[in-house]
Amino acid sequence: MNTLRLPIDPEKLDSEDARAAIETAASILRGGGVVAFPTETVYGLGANALRTDAVARIFEAKRRPSWDPVIVHISDLSMLPSVAASPRLSSCAQRLMQSFWPGPLTLLLPRSASVPDIVTAGRPLVGFECPPIPSRKP
Fold first, then answer.
1. Cα 84 to chain center, whole Å?
2. Which of 18, 27, 56, 110 is paired with 36 by a 20 to 30 Å CA distance?
3. Does domain 10-130 have CATH number 2.120.10.30?
4. Which residues contact 39 (CB under 8 A, 6 or more apart)?
5. Which band of pLDDT confidence, cut at 50, 70 and 90, is reported for residue 135?
6. What does the CA dihedral 25, 105, 75, 115 come to, rounded to 10 degrees?
7. Domain extents for the chain?
8. Largest alpha-carbon pair distance within the chain?
9. DSSP letters of 26-64?
10. Whole-angstrom distance, CA of residue 120 vs CA of residue 69
């Protein structure tokens, strides 16, 4: 396994170096690879949640048991309909999203057919998070 370090200064997200590093990481994800990234609490491993082969690489790298589901991160609410099965969310879920997203809140929702079994360990629900994205400096 090859490791490529792509440091990004959150204070300089608009810099050419940051844009190049983000594009490299995105290319790795599009190709089915795995990237490490900081979260609010730990560093996580990420892959394209809609690709079985990519998610399998997370399980392999972490030696994670196949019965232990992974969380799907979305960048904003507009992504939710493509990965969650329920077109109508409960008023409680909507209030939680409005109050706590972006942030470290995980919601369990019915998954769409596009989410592979490996993500949920074959279960009908998937954990979704909408993590905060560092704000860009003017």
1. 14
2. 110
3. no
4. 104, 131
5. low
6. 80
7. 10-130
8. 45
9. HHHHHTT--EEEE-SSSEEEE--TT-HHHHHHHHHHHT-
10. 5
Per-residue pLDDT tens digits for 6-64:
988 888 989 999 999 999 999 999 999 999 988 777 888 999 999 999 999 999 999 99
- The span from the CA of 28 to the CA of 57, in Å, is 12
Percent of all residues in the chain with a pLDDT value above 70, rounded to a whole number: 95
- What is the distance between the alpha carbons of residues 111 and 58, in angstroms, rounded to a whole number? 20
Residue for token digits 């979305």? 74
User: What single-letter amino acid sits at 138?
Assistant: P
d(CA 15, CA 22): 11
